Structures are given as structure tokens and as C-alpha cells.
Amino acid sequence: MESAFASASAITDQRQKIEQYKLILSTVIASNDVSQAKKFIDHVDSLTMESAFASASAITDQRQKIEQYKLILSTVIASNDVSQAKKFIDHVLSDDVPLVVSRQLLQTFAQELGRLEPEAQKEIGHYILNQIQPRVVSFEEQVLIIREKVADLYESEQQWSKAAQMLSGIDLDSAMRVIDDTFRLSKCVKIASLYLEDDDAVNAEAFINKASFLVSNSQNEALNWTYKVCYARILDLKRKFLEAALRYYDISQIEKRQIGDEVINEEALEQALSAAVTCTILAAAGPQRSRVLATLYKIDRMELRLEVVDLRLPLDRFQPGSLLLSPLSFLLLSIKSRVRERTAESNTDPTHTPVSCRVVSTRVLCPKVPSPCNTGYFFCELYSQLLTGHAFGLETLAMLLAEYLTYVRTWLELVFKADYFLQLKHWTLLQDERCSKLKIYPILQKVYLERILRKPEIDAFAEELKAHQKALLPDNFTVLDRAMIEHNLLSASKLYTNISFDELGTLLGIAPHKAEKIASRMIYEDRMRGSIDQVEAVIHFEDDTEELQQWDQQIVGLCQALNDVLDSMAKKGLSIPV
Length: 578
Description:
The protein is α+β, with helices and mostly antiparallel strands.
């Protein structure tokens, strides 16, 4: 067949050439061979395409040339023939076609690509990208359109990683065309979200890290929202559960229900809150997790109303029962000393989220803490006690205000440069009722109350977990197993003064030497207070409330008792000496 085609093609006389092809056709029909018939059709099509290309190339007027090529392209698209499409691409990218014409034709081809069958789209799309690669700088706009169309096709087929790989080939740092930061951010976030659909945290993190440099200046709320969700999921997949919990919790507290074109329903926010609870339970047991647990279990936000009071005024100007009737020297000293301590520590503190503050009038300030999980996370242990409800009194609140002062620098002047004090006028604790409606609320309650969890409870919780949250670790424990063992060990430290390795192993359901190893790691990492006597094979637990804290609590209790006495005297009409 090939030799017959070659001899027919070599004939210069048109009539003789047609007669020769008719002879070849009669031979093909007589043979009844389908493969030979297909070869004959392909050869004739190629002759037709070549003659069409030759006639288009011969046109000197550029506008007419482009129109002629577009007619050929429409024929190729209508035929849905991959081989003809490839021949068209090869010709357009050859030296016979000027670059200006090639760009316009490829632009049109890229826009019309969606008219082909899905499999043809993918094959031709990949073929174009491969053929363009040596000259990709000259066809960046066309490459962008083709990659987006093929990626959309992969996404519709739920081939998430292939869609992400297709989009990742877009040059977002090109110097040949102007690309704004919003476009870069949208592509980075889109690629990251596609990788996350396949639980590929490594590749997703690479693109979300690129997005992190752009999101701070972004005014697109929808993109910023998607970025936050992706970042939380990446932390979750990488088993940075405590950080993921903080991100999920922040997402669950969003007040808007319409972000761009996306409607945020209550179900999505509840899923974020549930994810925050799950990640907190799976996080390493210790003080940091306890603070986040307290936030999820107990408090949504705290609102304080404060008023600037001039201490130089006579004390009898204030009504009985006010905050200022507590020992002034103690309160003022507590605030000033704590502000100095926190100011000195500010250079070594981790990154924090400042408390938002607004001025209601010249004399009244209203700070609002929308998320204690963020602002209170790096505060002193006293704040943790406040959240968990252990040391809840006016003096404790006064010292808590000192924590706020160190993060709102404009207030420092009120404390140090004038004899002013902040009088507590109103405070409110608002609980997040959504947590109590979650399916995993019972285990959250037990974890928060530091109760030992039994196997049926753990098994019920495991049914709500994702695959990566039950993955097997190098020590042959799953992620869930390790979290539950550490939690039960920390709970046991609240119940026992000391315990033997054997008894601890029985309590935790693991071998004694493994229980010792886990306990030693928790003590070393300051997640549990205690010491290990390896000679006696006993673990001694220590109370995490230090003597100084106990002393402070006794002082707070004394001040509260004194305040109660003064209130009682005022109600009975007794005079209060100043």
C-alpha cells in the first residue's frame, strides 16, 4: 500500500493521478480488508489537508490567510478526527506559518477545544502542549487556556491530581505578560484544593505556601476563605492537630453567610467546628490542648466593658460593691507588675493575634475578644485558669486585663503615665451551644473533664475519623491509639499520686515498658509533671499547681471574702471605714 501511494503521489498529471488512485481503491474494495480501507482513507485525507494547507499558505494577505486557516480548523473540529487535528497543529507550528498567525490560530483552537469529545480533548490538549514546549514562551496565553480546559475536564472526571498537575504547568511568574496577584492567588489555592481532594498534603502545601505570600494583600474574601480552609486541611493531614484545630475553630466562628458568590451555610460551619473538636482530641495531651479544649467546651467569646477611673478622687465617691472596694494596692500592683512582665516577655512570645479595641467615647473603652482560642492561647496560666473556671473572681479579671494591656499598646500610657485605673463595668461570657449538638460532644466532654476513656467510647469515636487520623505510626500505634493513651495517662496523673509500671500498663491497655516510655516522653516535653523511679518501677505524679499559684489563689480568695463582707455591711446599712 505504501509503495502504491508513493507511486501515485509522484504522478504530476492530475488526470493520471486520479486514475491511479481509482485503481488502488478498487484493489482495496476487492480485498475486503478494513485495515487497508482505513489506510486509504487516511492517505486521501492527508492529501486533502496538505492541499488545503498549501492553498492557505499561498495567500499573501494576512487577514485572508487567517480566515482560510479558520475554515480549515472548523472542518477539523467538526470531524472530531484526532489525526487531522494533530496535522493541523503540526502545520500551524511549522516555519511555513508566521508566528503572529500561529498565535491567533492556536488561540482559536484552544477556545474551540471544548467542542471535541472528552477523550479527544485530552489527547489533543496534551499533544499541543508537547509540541509547543520548545517555544512555550511565545504561546503562554494559548497554553493557559488549554491547561484550564483540560484541567476542568479532569476535574469533572474526579481525577483531582491530574487536574492539579495540569494547572501547575501554568507559568505564574512569567515576565512576558502581566499577571496580577489575585490571579496568582486563585491558581495557587485552586491547585492546592485539587491536591487535597486526593489527600496529597505535600504538593498542596507547596502551593499554599506560595499563596501565603499573596493572601495578606488580597481583598477577595472568597479566595481568602478558601485559603483558610485549605491551610487547615493541610495541617490536619500533616497531623499538626493542635494548629489545625485553631484554624478550624477560626473558620467556624465566621459571622458572614455570603462570601462572594459562595453561600456559607450552618452545616459547613458545624463541620468546621466538628473538625476542630476532632483535631483537638487527637492532639498531644498537655496544657496547650487543655486550653483549646476549654475554649471549645465552654466559651465562645468574652466581652468586657471598662471605664477609666481617676484614682486621685476620694474613695467614698464609689458605691459599695464596686471593684475598687477590693484592696486597691493589690489590684493596681497586680496590673502594673503583670504589664511589666508581659512587656518584657513580648520579644520572646510566639506570634499572637492582637485583641481588637474600639473607642466608644473619650472615657469608655470596649475591648472584644472574638476568639479566646487565638488571643488567649499564648497568655499566662492565669488566663487558662479563667477559661477553665478554676480561679474566677474580680481580681483574676483585673489581672487578665493586664494581659490585654500588653497587646493593645495604646493602653500602656493609661497605666504608666497617669494615675488611672480601669474599672470593670460589665462582663459577659457567651457559650457556644453548637458544640453540645455535635455527634462527638460526649467524648469532648469526657476529654475536657479529664476522664479516662474506655474502649467502647474510643471505638465509637474512631468511626467518625478519616483515614489519615487512624494511620499506623512507626511505633505500631495508630494516631488515635497514641492520642487516647496519652489522654488516659494524663487523666491518671490527676487521680494517682504514684502508680507502678504494671498497673499503669493495665490501665492503659499496653505493655508496662511502653507505658513507661510514653510517660517519660510526656514528662520530658513538659506535657505532664512527674518523675520516674526506674529502680522501684514507679511513676510519681506531681500537682501542676505551683506553690506561688496556690498562694495567689489564697490571696484572691481572701480579697473575694473581704469584698463579700463589705457588700453585706452595705446591705445592712453599716458604715464602711475608709
